[in-house]
Write a structure and sequence with these properties.
The complex is a heterodimer of chains A (405) and B (231). With 405 residues, chain A is of the alpha+beta class. Chain A is built from 15 helices and twelve strands. Chain A is 53% helix and 18% strand. In chain A, the strands form two sheets. A six-stranded mixed β-barrel of chain A has the order 4-5-10-7-9-8. A two-stranded antiparallel ribbon of chain A has the order 2-3. In chain A, strand 4 and strand 5 form a beta hairpin. The two termini of chain A are 29 Å apart. The mean pLDDT of chain A is 86. Chain B has 231 residues and is α/β, with parallel strands linked by helices. Helix content of chain B is 35%, strand content 26%. In chain B, strand 4 and strand 5 form a beta hairpin. Classes of the chains: A alpha+beta (405), B alpha/beta (231). Chains A and B meet through helix 1, helix 11 and helix 15 of A and helix 2 and helix 3 of B.
Chain lengths: 405, 231
């Protein structure tokens, strides 16, 4: 085998401009693959992170109520019909046991109970429709990363304290320590001290969410001791759908993953991924065709040398390997230089858009996987594209090849 | 009695086309170990076809070919390639050295192909072969940088380095001027005398053929004459 590698390397070196042009082509191809992968991954990661920072990955609720219409006239036959009435807020049954069970599921990072429902917030003469969220102050931040996004005050919900978003605070002109009234349906309103103001990066959430203690939420929403949902954070966000399915089968409850509740986002992500894959495939095919065509020319140019090698006893398989190694060399150099060039492009892209705090808007993850993946693509492209020329070289009739003009 | 270096028995070769053309008609010949033989004949007489069959680069349509006593008929491509690499050496009119390799690397190549790697022992044997053709001082020169005569001497060293039983030379001096031709021929002669390697030299040059121990003349795909020089 070392003889094949030795010959492949010497042939590759002997090709000079031809070889280095091949490497240049592979370098450009790999850098495009690297850059496109890094770019789309960064954009997707940012989009998903921004969305999922304010969303639980999975929500477990009671299934919607459906009623069966059984009102048939005497003597007539009717098909039973199902209809969905207006849904009222109902608690999950035996939710502490359910929460403990879900926590034991592989892939679940954290579970938080919430008592969530519509409410009206009032400050002086201003009124806003809000979403009242009774939460467990210890568990909730493990599901929704709210603590680092508290802009003023703290996440303290004991007694009659509430945490609101920046938009609602602006609408009401309130600061930490001020009061606002919360009313649910026709019940008398309850006064809350604002203990903290958060900015979750989503104006709607910042305007609508009012966080109170779980007990206050249960009381105001008429869910004594109950919760309306269990919010879940998972290890692998892309496995949320399958985990939700597993939970649904196990609990017979309504279980929605972020993928199901954000179908528009998923369509966008899939479209981006599809475009990325298409560009990668086209680039790889173009590079492979370039390598194959140049190596075929090289086989023709070296016909006599191949013939004499066969005459000296070199088997077909070794001739095949000589050209496969050359393809691999092109792929290897393409991988090394291309990953480097792609990394430079990605770094420039990352530094082209920055957040006010100086962090990149689209942080590129220069993970080993990105380098290894691009390298493997290059190596495989080099090997596969050299299969055809290598096969032609191996099939050359030595008697004919030696007399090749 | 030892095996002959080469034995052909009733070898024919047909080429299929619109009509089947027979280019070799029942060739039978035996070359003993240590013989120095010239194969002559006009263009189109079937010399090259015969050399390809002897060199195991082509198969006969019928008849048998024995190389060092081994019947090559039943051998598959891999077996023929191995036997060729072990028992035969080739020198061509156009040296066919690998231009990207140094002279030494070219000469080491048959050994490297047989063993799959290059080692110190191969290097020493290549040095010896280069010394035999008086080219050791050019061992580190790229093959493409050698003169025509040097290239042919390097090709001879390469053909001999693995000590083949039979060296096949196809017009080895056909591309050289007269003085260099004489030098190369003399070199082959001295190697033959020193190592006892059998030589089969295809040539148009009657002057060179006359200096061989035996001259086989081929015409129209048949052996027309087989003459041995007077002792």
């Amino acid at each position: 085998m070392w003889t094949d590698i030795f010959l492949a390397w010497r042939f590759f070196r002997d090709g000079r401009a031809q070889s280095w042009l091949l490497v240049a082509g592979a370098t450009v191809g790999v850098s495009v693959v690297f850059f496109i992968t890094a770019l789309i991954d960064a954009v997707q990661t940012t989009m998903v992170a921004q969305t999922l920072d304010v969303l639980p990955h999975i929500v477990v609720r009671r299934p919607d109520q459906t009623l069966r219409n059984t009102g048939t006239k005497p003597g007539s036959v009717e098909f039973a019909s199902l209809f969905q009435p207006a849904q009222r807020l109902r608690s999950l049954e035996s939710w502490p046991a359910l929460m403990a069970e879900i926590e034991r599921f592989d892939g679940v990072l954290a579970v938080s109970p919430t008592a969530t429902g519509p409410a009206m917030a009032t400050r002086a003469t201003a009124t806003r429709a809000v979403t009242l969220m009774g939460i467990d102050a210890e568990r909730f931040p493990k599901v929704i990363r709210v603590t680092p996004r508290i802009k003023s005050g703290i996440l303290a919900l004991d007694g009659n304290r509430a945490v609101i978003g920046t938009e609602l605070a602006n609408d009401f002109g309130v600061n930490v320590g001020d009061r606002l009234q919360i009313a649910v349906e026709s019940k008398p309103s309850t006064s809350f001290h604002v203990s903290g103001i958060f900015d979750l990066g989503n104006k709607d959430v910042n305007r609508r969410w009012v966080l109170v203690s779980l007990r206050q939420g249960q009381t105001l929403l008429n869910l004594p001791g109950g919760v309306s949902a269990l919010d879940i954070r998972v290890k692998d966000i892309w496995a949320a759908d399958s985990l939700a399915d597993a939970l649904q089968r196990r609990t017979r409850l309504r279980v929605d993953s972020w993928m199901a509740t954000n179908s528009q986002l998923m369509v966008g992500l899939k479209s981006q991924a599809g475009s990325r894959d298409m560009i990668r495939i086209l680039v790889v095919v173009a590079v492979a065709m370039g390598i194959a065509s140049v190596l075929i020319v090289s086989v023709v140019q070296r016909s006599r040398q191949i013939g004499i090698l066969r005459a000296m006893g070199m088997p077909k398989s070794a001739i095949l390997r000589v050209f496969l190694w050359q393809g691999a060399a092109v792929g290897l150099f393409g991988a090394l230089f291309g990953s480097g060039l792609g990394a430079v492009f990605a770094w420039l892209f990352q530094h082209s858009a920055m957040n006010p705090d100086g962090t990149p808007t689209y942080p590129v993850d220069f993970s080993p996987n990105l380098f290894i993946g691009s390298g493997l693509v290059a190596l495989l492209t080099g090997l596969l594209s050299s299969l055809l020329p290598a096969g032609r070289a191996a099939k050359l009739d030595p008697a004919v090849a030696i007399r090749h003009e | 009695m030892s095996n002959p270096a080469l034995e052909l028995s009733n070898v024919t070769k047909d080429y299929a086309g619109a009509v089947i053309t027979r280019v070799l008609h029942g060739i039978s010949v035996r070359i003993d170990v240590g013989e120095f033989v010239a194969l002559v004949g006009p263009s189109g007489s079937g010399k090259s076809t015969l050399l390809n069959i002897i060199g195991l680069l082509d198969r006969p349509s019928s008849g048998s070919v024995f190389v060092t006593g081994i019947d090559t008929g039943p051998l598959d491509d891999h077996g023929r390639t191995r036997l060729r690499g072990k028992s035969l050496g080739f020198v061509f009119q156009f040296h066919h050295l690998l231009g990207a390799l140094t002279t030494l690397e070219n000469v080491m190549m048959p050994l490297a192909i047989a063993s799959g790697s290059m080692n110190k022992h191969h290097q020493e044997r290549a040095h010896e072969a280069l010394r035999a053709v008086d080219l050791l001082h050019r061992k580190d020169t790229l093959a493409r940088s050698l003169s025509g005569g040097e290239q042919q001497r390097a090709a001879i060293a390469r053909a001999l380095v693995h000590e083949p039983s039979l060296l096949l030379a196809d017009e080895p001096t056909g591309n050289l001027d007269r003085r260099t031709s004489d030098t190369v021929f003399q070199l082959m002669r001295s190697i033959h005398q020193r190592l006892g390697t059998s030589f089969l030299i295809v040539t148009h040059d009657q002057r060179l053929a006359a200096r061989c121990d035996r001259v086989i003349t081929v015409a129209d795909g048949r052996i027309e004459s087989d003459e041995r020089a007077a002792p």
